[in-house]
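Batch job 17 of 40 flagged for manual review because the log was empty.
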Amino acid sequence: MPMPSKATAVYEQIKQDVIRLRFRRDEIINEKALAERYQVSKTPVREALGVLVQEGYLKKIPRVGYLMREVTEADYRKLIYLRFTLEKGVVLWIIRHCTEEEILSLREHCREERITYQDFGGVNYDFHMAMARLTGNEYLADEVRRIFQQTIRSPSMNLYQEVQEDPHKYHLLLIEAMRQRDERAALQLIEHECRRDDDPDSIF
């Protein structure tokens, strides 16, 4: 049964807050606070939270509230490799089929000059979704969106420190590599972003 429109709107807002790490991992998320934040009654909030629990974004703690559900280390490594595999396809399609003008249009998604650690994941997500949409393949874009949403996890602090004052450093390098039709350089940049230098068990 589809959610009422108000619950759907609240669901989308909460999901974006989860994806963009606006909740701390140890933060108790409760219906009253969210109802006040979104200026709605608790009913649509409760319905939206129920769906987010079913989808695996949150876990419910009876009589307490909700917590963000992060993937396990083992599942994260599997999912990040799937993301790497999908994004290789995105990059190769762009290099082989997109015009220079289309590739350079990605710079429109590189406007932030400085970001907080909490905003890093969301800014990165927006850029990579713009890349996926550039392929014109809605099935591929949906899979990229899904894999980003499944790998909700605090970003690599090492990677964040590299780009803290230049958040689109690697995005701009990737745009240039694709513009130059340099598949090797572009794929190395995707691998660099997927690698977690703070994870001794990283697959890369």
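Reviewer: the log was empty due to a logging misconfiguration, but the result itself is present. The chain has two domains: 5-68, 73-194. Unflagging and moving on to job 18.
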